[in-house]
Design brief:
Blueprint (H helix, E strand, L loop, with lengths): L8 E6 L4 H12 L3 E6 L2 H13 L4 E5 L5 H14 L1 E7 L14 H22 L8 E4 L4 H4 L5 H20 L1
Parallel strand pairs: 1-2, 1-4, 2-3, 4-5
């Protein structure tokens, strides 16, 4: 998509209600982006949104369950309507610490759904709206390179994020 210099630049940050995502969102706001904050936790999401607004920035808080494809698509569409989608930061994730023999199918599915599937589909939906020169940032972990004895599904999902990032770079 071509850049429209009149439209405000927008960055989407998933998992923006705390930790790394919050830090990234605050920095993007200081750098002049309108920030679409996405998280499942409404209370902390509103806190980050209010902090950005109090500092003179633009923020839109969207509560979403990113394991649901409809929620991902809605978030991206709302972000694109709010301004010129320039940045997508895939930060949302979860870790479950459990000894390898005790990992359940539900543990596996929960981690892979949020930590990998969400990233793929967020990129797919966002790629339709990202301006020329737009940026996609996928947050992985050192666990994706080295593995973890009590976090095997998390480490595997983060390794997948690294590979998906490479594949996305080649595809887009």
């Amino acid at each position: 998509m071509k850049s429209d210099s009149a439209a405000p630049k927008v960055a989407v940050v998933t998992g923006a209600a705390q930790g790394i995502g919050q830090g990234i969102a605050l920095r993007l706001a200081r750098d002049g982006f309108g920030v679409v904050l996405v998280d499942i936790n409404k209370a902390t999401l509103d806190g980050v949104k209010n902090e950005i607004i109090q500092q003179g920035g633009r923020a839109l808080g969207l509560q979403a369950d990113l394991t649901q494809l409809n929620d991902i698509q809605t978030v991206i569409e709302q972000a694109a309507e709010w301004g010129e989608l320039s940045v997508l930061v895939n930060n949302a994730g979860r870790v479950i610490t459990r000894p390898f023999p005790e990992v359940t199918e539900q543990d596996w599915d929960a981690i892979f759904s949020l930590d990998l599937k969400t990233i793929f589909f967020a990129i797919q939906f966002a790629s339709r709206y990202l301006i020329s020169g737009g940026r996609i940032v996928n947050i992985s972990s050192i666990s994706g390179r080295s593995g973890r004895p009590d976090q095997a599904p998390y480490a595997a999902a983060k390794a997948g994020v690294i590979s998906l990032t490479r594949s996305t770079a080649l595809a887009l």
